[in-house]
Amino acid sequence: MSTVTEDKIELPSVWRALDTLQLCYTVIPQMKHYYRYGTFRDCAQARRDLTFAMSLKSKSEEEAMAIVRERDETHYRTKITERSSIGVWTLRSEPPANFPPKQSK
């Protein structure tokens, strides 16, 4: 939600967070997610982002910037330390048994 440039951290916008939450709950994206994955989309992160943006409104600007910086660093550390998608793939030494598939005439 917050954007980070070289030395400037922008505070998250409550309106942007509200729009993201509303978009998460709209019918078409929910139905697409249900069709593809068999469950409705989880909008908990969008809800957390909205409550986080609203909670910053009661803080001073310096305090809010420090909180946002800490949250961004935590997200970055979590993203780096999570298991990467490379661990899912196994390297094959030879092609699968029926590859390419035989076409029946």
TrEMBL record:
Which InterPro entries does this one have? Pants/Emi1-like (IPR021475)
- Highest taxon above the source species: Eukaryota
Q: Which PANTHER family match?
A: UPF0545 PROTEIN C22ORF39
Q: Which organism is it from?
A: Rhizoclosmatium globosum
* Name used for this protein in its record: Uncharacterized protein
